[in-house]
Predict the 3D structure of the following.
Amino acid sequence: MCVIKIEMTLSEENYLKSIFHLEKKYVRGVSTNALAEEMETKASSVTDMIKKLSEKNLVNYKKYQGVKLSEKGNSIAVQIIRKHRLWEYFLVEKLDFNWDEVHDIAEQLEHIKSDELISKLDKFLEYPKRDPHGDPIPDAEGNFANLEKKILAEFNEGDQGICVGVKDSSAAFLQYLDRNKIKLGKSITILEKEQFDGSMILKMNNKELTISKVAANNIYLKPVALD
Amino acid sequence: MCVIKIEMTLSEENYLKSIFHLEKKYVRGVSTNALAEEMETKASSVTDMIKKLSEKNLVNYKKYQGVKLSEKGNSIAVQIIRKHRLWEYFLVEKLDFNWDEVHDIAEQLEHIKSDELISKLDKFLEYPKRDPHGDPIPDAEGNFANLEKKILAEFNEGDQGICVGVKDSSAAFLQYLDRNKIKLGKSITILEKEQFDGSMILKMNNKELTISKVAANNIYLKPVALD
DNA sequence: TATTATTTTTAGACAAATCTAAAAATTTGT
DNA sequence: ACAAATTTTTAGATTTGTCTAAAAATAATA
């Protein structure tokens, strides 16, 4: 097991995390501009930082060809995400924050440096598998437990599922879900799917609820097999 | 109530905290050199930073005359200390850290910016009054509850007290206390005080224990009135 | 395939926090 | 009280992460 500790600045950690998230969209390399937008900075700053990360062998980079995380970079990014999600779980489950309030605080807490802290926090929280938004919390080795889930908008009339996550974790969307009593764990049945605009009429809590396609595109359900 | 939020860098916060602690020793103004030593930096760097803090009206400073915290600077320092001590309490009481392991982690956690976080943490911990080393945790308004306490070395033969704090919180000293089973809350009776070197023979846990003057100078007892 | 348009990189500058070396002010000792 | 020692400040340089503006490379389009 390789336990070489690398000195990482806050900014470097944030870049690795952003690259990690963008790699899902940009499989063949994350572009400078995409990263600049994600980091809310300028492309020139991104180029500079990428060179630095490349010299540390945390990313693979060739001029004009975007970046990918190296194995080392990936595992550091995963550990940051682990910390972020564990802290989010702590904030909601122990400190009684709402799920729309925890992102910015976890964004700070994720940079606290202490392996012992995270391992003890994990134990204290009894090894949670998902954060308050349904995203998987990787274990100490960096393994994600992956739960079967599908975007609600892809379900058809008559289908049923359990709400297990959200794609958009913005406060605005989470508050919209709160107002409509949509929570993780809720059972949802698709009653109607409007061809015209993709909106859906759902049954949840024994009530009917109409949601737009935009909303349906940001909710994950675990399909329930019907007999 | 003045609720103006001031943007503070990590370094600025650490300077305020150090000045706060040094003000106990240097009542008539903290010298540049003392601060440089505390901050493990050079006097020239201290001068630069002090000018910056002075422009923000967080310290009162006149060339060659040391610094004192302004009212605003003091209240910021107290809030940082509040955060530090609450986090230390959390680490020991909830995450099961030993009292000699928490300082460096709390040193990082104290800079997390969120009033809501601290108020909810305080509630979760049920408003603790003392950190794991016996130091008082100021409340949200910055008030310290002060407990009667005296340095063990100043007690005399026959005196009795309850261990309520330590002056030196270094890991080395705390581990020494652990090895000798000295904990906060323990009842201690002074059996003998050696004139020659100031060492003391104590009775604790119904056993006798000899400690040096150096150790006795770093333990606080709350005196117990004897009848 | 030229010619635009876009993306990315380079070059040079800036602010924050630090450093070294030297100058200025203060304190100490005789 | 004045020279020596100490402390403190200034001046100028460095590093990190950022910026703007311009140049270079790539992609898109007619």
